[in-house]
Amino acid sequence: MSVVPKECKLPSATPIHPPQRFLFGPGPTQVDERVYQAMSQPIVGHLDAYFLRLNEEIQQMLRVVFGTENPLTFVISGTGSGGMEAAISNFVEAGSKVAVLANGYFCDRMTEMATRQGAEVVRFEKAWGEVFGDDEAAEFIERERPRTVLYVHAETSTGARQQGKAICTAAHKVDALVIADVVTSLGAMPVQVDETGIDIAYSCTQKGLSCPPGLAPITVSPRAAERMNARTKPNRSWYFDLKLLNDYYNLSHRYHHTASISLFYALHEALRLILEEGVQNRWVRHRRCHVEFVKGIEALGLKMHVANPEHRVINLNTPCVPAGVDEAKVRKTLLDEHGIEIMGGFGPLAGKIFRIGVMGPLATEAHVATFLQQFGKAMGK
Amino acid sequence: MSVVPKECKLPSATPIHPPQRFLFGPGPTQVDERVYQAMSQPIVGHLDAYFLRLNEEIQQMLRVVFGTENPLTFVISGTGSGGMEAAISNFVEAGSKVAVLANGYFCDRMTEMATRQGAEVVRFEKAWGEVFGDDEAAEFIERERPRTVLYVHAETSTGARQQGKAICTAAHKVDALVIADVVTSLGAMPVQVDETGIDIAYSCTQKGLSCPPGLAPITVSPRAAERMNARTKPNRSWYFDLKLLNDYYNLSHRYHHTASISLFYALHEALRLILEEGVQNRWVRHRRCHVEFVKGIEALGLKMHVANPEHRVINLNTPCVPAGVDEAKVRKTLLDEHGIEIMGGFGPLAGKIFRIGVMGPLATEAHVATFLQQFGKAMGK
Fold this sequence. Notes:
2 copies of one chain form a homodimer. Chain A is of the alpha/beta class. Helix content of chain A is 40%, strand content 12%. Chain A has 2 domains: 22-28 and 278-378, Aspartate Aminotransferase, domain 1 (Alpha-Beta Complex), CATH 3.90.1150; 34-274, Type I PLP-dependent aspartate aminotransferase-like (Major domain) (Aspartate Aminotransferase, domain 2), CATH 3.40.640.10. In chain A, the strands form 3 sheets. Chain A has a 7-stranded mixed β-sheet, sandwiched between helices. Chain A has a 3-stranded antiparallel β-sheet with strand order 9-12-11, with helices on one face. In chain A, strands 1-10 form a two-stranded parallel sheet. In chain A, helix 10 packs across helix 11 and helix 11 (279-299) packs parallel to helix 13. The longest helix of chain A has 21 residues, at 279-299.
């Protein structure tokens, strides 16, 4: 009975001992010690009454953070990109028309997923960092008359925030559903699903919710749930089939998959922390730190890539790289000397912007001040 | 700016404080304290050099446990069912012929996923708990000449173990790929991917690997990788696209999704524990406890559902429920009085079998003895 392949040397792996990091990137972001404590509690079974109650509490807390009364509001055992795939595979059918408001990387990813589902995708394109005005967005949607409209609320690749209300109103006029990517905004900025009129919103756990990555919160309006239930062809994805997931979580509790229990523990505690602080207070704190951050960045002589302050994502800042500065070197210095992680731009913004998240436990005046000091030094200022 | 939906009362959620459980079900199973400790270490970024090195070590350790030299051996940020969907969506194309050796629930789930991909599925069916002989399996495959063959190595719904060698040999004769579900066996029983000839094997973390749920290890033979790379239509699933995942993990390290970092920490430590013990020693320990368990069960007057000892999954036992015994009541007693979780049968085996896992930290003579004592009492013996 030979076991270890002949050529395979037994690998040597040392115990987990991560370097200390200050996660000032677009995510994952810093996690509160209480969340780690919750996450490391012993697991129970995925059909245990304790797990089901926890799951219910998570759903209730998520509704508050999403700003919705949607009964169908829960968590998927996959990352934010899994949330995107769940939204698209459930609500974009082969041959149906999909309209994308495209102004960044994650709009392109949505386009790619919708195309893989066999949809006919039409796009309204803007440069990365610009946003769509109410009238032009409405005109596009009313002209194209799609079945589904896709937009990104807080574009992680550009730092631009897209208003959703006019998009949703126009979409509903032509009987289309709206899928909004709120991956970066949820928990740090107002998302207000019901007030905006969003039909499907999905997110991740490792940005505005300040939790380790691995789960994707999603919410579905009753109107969207109706269309989902009326599908004649099942979702090609069994894993992301929201009907089956709802049945497991909320209806029959029939086994679907074994949920990522430890991450549910973590999210439960992260949401408790958010509600303890107060959702509104948390937004105010993030906005305050954003204002401080921009003031400091401008004092260093940098410009923000998103020119209009009203169009900025408040928890993810994208200052332009000044001429003559090697942004990769700045990032390397910050990481090597201070354990500070920030990210650069990519695609059309490669080398042109920094992407600097100020969120969760790091969204305090003190952390912003320290960051700006180290950042300034790394820039040679 | 209204935030909390009008009707929504602020939910009250208490801190995570799970009841103590002895997880003797089919999974999730008990987790070593060292794994929880590793999991709760502070996260780093998903492109951090530390994470990439860890990921490489995980891949090396997984190759040993899978018994393979396949370069394409890594982990998916989803549960075991996500691993199944990754295997099927990458290797089963619309219109292609798929042959399923169907003798339990997870074969049916594979059938469902393949059907959703638009494949033409042919099935060779057996009663739940029976296995396929070499000749009949080969005959079926050579007659049907499919592109892909699916079978389950250790059927969690029945406790039956399917030999794979004859299946793989026959499949390769007709140029088919073989996908094997090793969700329950990996880490507790010999899987031996290369020796058996399996092309694609996927698993989960919460059974034989004794880790919390949320990741799916997968391995792909060079032959299968070649076919994958030759696909002209992309995988409909972007999230589970193994080409993109391999690029993120191993080639360009280009961002694909934000991996479930904390769960990678946990799996890394779980694999270290396995290699410290020795893969073979671990199998021997599980087999010894299985033999003890069966002896004890038979002493209590119960019969094993899988009659032939050679056909049994060694870490998941399925004794028959004796006439007159209310199995749900037995399970409830064990859970309520001793915190012991076991599962019942479902589908055609509902009410007819218990499903009792003896694996990981609970696979010791002492735990088996204690379990049998409590189980006997709960049965009224």
